[in-house]
Amino acid sequence: MTIKNLIAGGALLAAGILPVAHAGATLDAVKSKGFVQCGVSTGLPGFSATNDKGEWTGLDVDVCRAVAAAVFGDASKVKYTPLTAKERFTALQSGEIDMLSRNTTWTLTRDTNLGLNFAGVNYYDGQGFMVHKSLGVKSAKELDGAAICIQAGTTTELNLADYFRSNGMKYEAITYDTSDETVKGFEAGRCDVLTSDQSQLYALRIKLKDPKGAMVLPEVISKEPLGPVVRNGDEDWLKVVRWSLFAMINAEEMGVTSKNVDQIKKTTKDPGKQRLLGLSGIKGKGLKIRDDWAYQIIKQVGNYGEAFERNVGMGSPLKIARGLNALWNKGGIQYAPPIR
Amino acid sequence: MTEQSNDEAPAAASFWRDPRKRQWIFQILVLALVGLLFAYIFHNTLFNLEKRGISTGFDFLDHEAGFNILMSLIPYDETYTYGRTFLVGLLNTLLVSAIGIVFATIIGFVVGVARLSSNWIISRLANLYIEVFRNIPLLLQILFWYFAILPLLPHPRHSIQIGELFLNKRGLYLPKPVFEPGFGWVLAALGLAVVASILVARWARRRQEATGQPFPVFWTSLGLIVFLPWLVYGLAGFPLSWDLPQLRGFNFRGGLGVIPELFALALALSIYTAAYIAEIVRSGIQSVSHGQTEAAYALGLKRGQTLRLVIIPQAMRVIIPQLTSQYLNLTKNSSLAPAIGYPDLVAVFAGTTLNQTGQAVEIIGMTMGVYLFISLAISAFMNWYNKRMALVER
User: Fold this and answer.
1) What ipTM did this prediction achieve?
2) Structure pTM?
3) Chain A interface, mutation test: which of B41, B250, B345, B348, most A Cβ atoms within 10 Å?
């Protein structure tokens, strides 16, 4: 018996000696397993939600698809892991997912304390409030003493506390695990107010039984730059994710869309477009992926403007205006470094 | 075993041939290996966390939390530390567990006895209760009590009012007692009454053992405990006032509020666990042979005395160990709280705090340690109680 114990102990000890991750590990692992494991939300219309065919769609999902298109030339090579706000960072840290694209706000703490890297910003948002119209409230300043439904593990919890503190108001925070539960609590009347990023409020409002009975207050109380996140320790992978997003934004700026990309690829004399489509310049070498990576993204996913309009803009039930998310030369702040 | 060859060759059995010594060596070796293994895992974790740039250590407990918690038994606001959120969550967990244990025990005993009733309807109803609540998943029951009952309650502006009690979607609002100077005397009187009752009970028992004369201990104690504090309360000039809840703006302010999350969670835990306790009580009572009852009657004991002095003490020995595991289950099940937003330890500390700081290893470790400690404490108490009950046997 003691001998058996010894062997068992030794085996455990051996199993405990795990290899330490080397640089480029995630990109290599993704390439060899043949798909991208992408963390998304548990269901937020317009950003990441399943459609009536059970396929994941949305602005955040399109980032995952763009990465798959860049690496494999096939945007469908993505597997999705739905995560609550509480679970998301642990899932990424532990390696359960390769990238997180789940309306996640870029903050100093998250960028420095969690062992994660933000790859860019795919949606500029801000926190707002939704109230029942019957309450007769017109401004967030009238919310003293209100009960507020909120999702656990978000920057919204902290912003809310800051806002009420700086305005000398009191509130009661009812913190649920998922955004679905916050909607249920709001609908059941447990709280007067639902707070979240404004884009989410519009998305959650269409989940209500009576969307017209609720309104979003005009105040925006925070900056919420949302973007894809990867683990520390693999800069190659970080760059693939980052430049997949940049390619979408650059394509919109150059007027390259999923419809005209083949045409442009054949005829263009514009050196900028040639570099974008992998006809000249550094191509995919620096990123250690295929040369036509950006072409595949544009062809299969579309440029940023197309993705925006399709998922959250005028082509969707959400009908969110471009606002801050318009390109830098069209009155917004979406801006990507040049591909050259 | 090894003594056979002692007189011939005391030192003949070499160190390695002596099974007892060998056993010791192996034990020590295994222990050392296990220790090394844990040390290695610990070191490896720290190393990898460091390498990935994830913060480690317990410094975060002193940092300002910056978020609000729905319910706190101790003073708390956004300016308190993460360490404080641990205490707030822990106390909320203990509160809901304690309420759950008390009510589950009461309901469980009543239903368990009802299950054995000779009245057909009562025993069937008890049976129905047990089968229904034992066989529906607890999480669903919690969600039911929360999301099914909540919409039925009125908005704060149209609260249901019973005297100074208000009931609405935000919870139950009660007048809150405010103790004024002099109230200490009332508490002292209460303490005195309790001590006096215990003394009376002892004296009555000794007298009954000596003379066989029973004494109405229950009524005497009740009289003492109720009457004495009231007398002092009157003499001290009624040193107690009430803070009444008042509707202001969105909701009631002042008074004592009971949030619906606490209510729903405590209710679901009590009702669910009570179904198990009822079965345990039934099995305990049935384990006492009917001959005991007949013997008690033959000795001239009354029905109530038979139950109290003969059946229950023997049944308790079967009931307590199983009851312990139900109490443990209830406490651990209270960690389903985040589903309905009750701010227990898991929701507050292993939820929000974990997410804001990102220090999963430390926080989950602390949370698991707390549940382990609570469970072991309940276990130790129940074992002590079980031993005490077992001593009754002669």
Assistant:
1) 0.77
2) 0.80
3) B250
